[in-house]
Amino acid sequence: MVGIQDLRRPGLLALQTLAVAACYFAAGRLGLMRQLVVQGAVVTPIWPPTGVAVASLLIFGMRSLLGITLGVLLVVMSITTLQPAVIGTLVGNTAAPVCAYLMLRRVGFRTDLSRLRDGVALVFLAALTSMLISATAGVGLLVLLDKIDASSFWPVWLAWWVGDAMGVLIVTPILLLLRTARRPENLSRWTEASGLALIACALVPLAAYSSISLLFLVYPLLILAALRFQLAGSILCALFASTAATVAATDETGPFARLTQVEVMIKLQAFNGSMALTALLLSAVITEQRNTRRSVEQACQDLAEVLEHLTAGDTPRGRPSKGAEGVRHPPAGE
């Protein structure tokens, strides 16, 4: 029996490594479909692989590190040839998710994102702080190799950093949500979700492609989704709106028309970032308040049962009576 388990463990680890690498590579190819040119450097407004990497580490632990490294290597090989400089990109894109995972584990992060502190930790530790590593390593490497001028460092660095951070803010919560997703049994919830989806399908394209800047119309929809469906509703709404806005920005249509590449990048990333922050933090606050209310209601119900038993003169279940504790039974023979 021990021998069979020993054989299974390397097989499961290899399968897990290949699955993580495949997901990372697929997310990378998906992210490369939409690009912006900033100061002569090509950057992606949203880089989904960072979200895949952080989610893999949170779900599988450090066992997924090899799969992440392999995924980074496959993505790099798909867009350029293997060069010594690739090592810098490999190290930066692997170290950033690992740093995010270690910091989240240090602060007691919960993958269900049911507390405000979990949402804040994901935003400020995993997304904004850890992705400084990948952005600095990647853009610094471009400067050292004379791919971009030193004067272009900060604009390119900002675009790179925000793209990696957006991958964590949007993709990681969705993957963590899919891990614990349950099908709602109440038919009315399906009806409400379908109605909300129809409204989103009509409102989001209008906001993203209208020549008038109507991106602010997404926020009431985002708030409604968070109020009714918490993280599941808000993050899916944010993903849809972010995707539509990214497509419009890269096509330079709608509110992104007649803007320079830098202005497009700033406007798009400001919208995506504020929307992702709203979705995460608002849903975390609502979920935490609902859990607190359930705890208070349960405590009140337990207290009411105890008072009911005391009023009736009975002993509450599981609680010995005070009189019974004070009676000393005489030993046999007294």
TrEMBL record:
Lineage, top ranks: Bacteria, Bacillati, Actinomycetota, Actinomycetes, Kitasatosporales
Membrane topology: Multi-pass membrane protein
This protein's GO CC annotations: plasma membrane
Spans through the membrane: 12-32, 52-77, 84-104, 124-145, 157-176, 196-219, 231-250
Source organism of this protein record: Streptomyces resistomycificus
Main location: membrane
Record localization: Cell membrane
UniProt keyword list: Cell membrane, Membrane, Transmembrane, Transmembrane helix
InterPro entries xref list: MASE1
UniProt name for this protein: Membrane protein
Start and end residues of each MASE1 domain: 18-290
